[in-house]
Amino acid sequence: MSVPAAYAGLILIWATTPLGIKWSGEGVGFLFGVAGRMVISLVICLLLVALFSRRMRWHRAAFMTYLVAGLGMWAAMTGVYWGAQQIPSGLVSVLFGLTPVVTGWMAAVWLHEPVFTPFRVLGMLLGLTGLVVIFGQAPAFGQSALWGMLAILGSVAAHSLSMVLVKRLGERTPPLETTTGALIVAVPLYLLTWWAGDGQWPDDVSQRTLSSILYLAVFGSVLSFTLYFYVLRHSLASRVALVTLVTPVIALVIGQWLNGEAVTAREWMGALVIMAGLASYQWGDGWRRGRSAATN
Fold it and tell me: What kind and span of H or E run contains 192?
């Protein structure tokens, strides 16, 4: 698979995930939604590993990769699921747009990646500016929404830290095995969290809730995590994080279209600023080098 194709698939899946998360907790509770999703995902991954006659590596480096990825998955997704019940799905994706900035700092410290070139810094600043523009249009938030936003920001930190640490470990375990190993670590934690927080089996599950859980299990977990680890293996960690600068634009459209979430002109303006930041981050340094070569 080409890296750009995997990158595009990851963007499309992550853009639809916030609304799926919101719907998957309707009537059953968000803990049941996330635990059910991950159990199904693990079963599918184990079947795929067996079907393709793959083997799970359990040497120290592989186990540490599974452990770091699984803990990050559990911490980040639990925070996102809770926060998504408090705020609009589009705003979930917008707040996750802070990931490149957090990841950039971590990657610079621990991976020594060349993150802070002039155009990449400009891209980060434009991305943050776009988020501020969008966020500034949000109505007055209640206390539950404020806690929801803080939970999403905590998830950003957990996701970024996990991404950088997986990259730093440098283990070359194939993406499917990495996803499976991470789920083996994370699923018991999800089940324990569900049991401690709720532990109630729902009497009735609506068609929309069930469809959302299945969609998130197949596409939002198995496929997206496999694509994620594939792209992470072949790209800079800070560049992989830029997916979250593109998904807010698409997520805002999806939330407006399918869930009736209002998108104002100011929010669209912020989305355009984010896209400008992405362009600067991805292509600014290459454009500058091309200009320098042409003048010389």
Answer: helix 175-197
Half-sphere exposure of 81 (CA within 13 A, CB side): 27
Q: Which tens digits make up the pLDDT trace of 32-68?
A: 999 999 999 999 999 999 998 788 888 898 999 999 9
Distance CA(272)–CA(282), nearest Å, equals 15
Residue from 93, 114, 106, 101 nearest 241 by CA: 101
The answer to whether the CB of 282 falls within 8 A of the CB of 123 is yes
What pLDDT, in 10s, does the model give residues 247-262?
877 887 888 788 777 6
- Whole-angstrom Cα distance, residue 68 to residue 74? 10
Which ranges constitute the DSSP H helices of 25-142?
A: 30-51, 60-84, 89-96, 99-110, 118-136
Give me the helix-helix angle, 175-197 and 224-234, nearest 10°: 130
Please name the residues in contact with 53: beta carbons below 8 A apart, sequence gap of 6 or more.
none
How crowded is residue 62: how many other Cβ atoms within 10 Å of its Cβ? Answer: 18
> Mean of the per-residue pLDDT values for the chain?
83
Q: How far is CA 255 from the centre of its chain?
A: 17
Question: What is the pTM (predicted TM-score) of this model?
Answer: 0.79
Distance CA 214, CA 223 (A): 12
Question: The tokens of 49 are what?
Answer: 């590993």
DSSP 172: -
Distance, CA of 254 to CA of 251 (rounded, Å): 5
How would residue 25 be classed by pLDDT, with cut points 50, 70 and 90? confident
